[in-house]
What does this fold into?
Amino acid sequence: MVESVSDETVAFAPVVLIPVYNHEEAIGPTLEDVLQYSCPVLLVDDGSSPACRDVLVALSEKYADRVELLRLPRNGGKGAAVKAGFEALLARGYSHAIQVDADGQHDLSDLPMFLAAGRENPEALVTGYPKYDTSVPKIRYYGRYLTHVWVWINTLSFEVRDTMCGYRVYPLAQVVKLLKQEQCGDRMDFDTEVIVRWLWRGGRVKNLPTEVRYPIDGVSHFDALRDNVLISLMHTRLFFGMLRRVPSILWRRLHG
It folds into this structure.
């Protein structure tokens, strides 16, 4: 039987999900930008320092009518925080999570565009692909294309324009089901791995262009050694997973 993530028509009840780890300077302006729009917000504190924790508590109290805070006891990584957020939001009855980063790198004036795309394509995973300004480090700009090439190989497809952008709209029921059934990384490998596994299960992807700038507080939690090792292991895992899925992937190409 062919796996599927799109068996049901999905309604649209969105919420913004922001994983946060020690971005006490950036999260306030980021949240204020999000709150210009009509979505509720879930902040997921991924085991932040006391300074950041206090900022998050204060923000959740200040905007208590629209903002909820989910605190995790220890730092598990961006992927772990997003997964915890998905589970909590699905339990609260939301249909879609709009994931944005806490550090201010995403252009939140594009949020209405992402909301409209999610509403018009409720069964699809909507993902941004970056239009960078001059703030992007060149090594990161060129290095991410190695990951793109591996994703194109592992999906036998060019369907995803950018595989690492965390500005996304996720259908919650389908992605939570996927995460219960398949392994996805807990750190910086999450964004890439989940979209590959989404495509493997026949899920649709819609790509949207969006401007990306590097963190407004100058803080990046990308650990060059740890995260590059995890990403390399992820690509290896996905490559061997692709090999055993080749018949089903090709079947979809021919009959999709």
In short: The chain has one domain: 14-255. The helical segments are 27-34, 50-62, 78-91, 111-120, 138-155, 172-181, 190-200, 224-255.
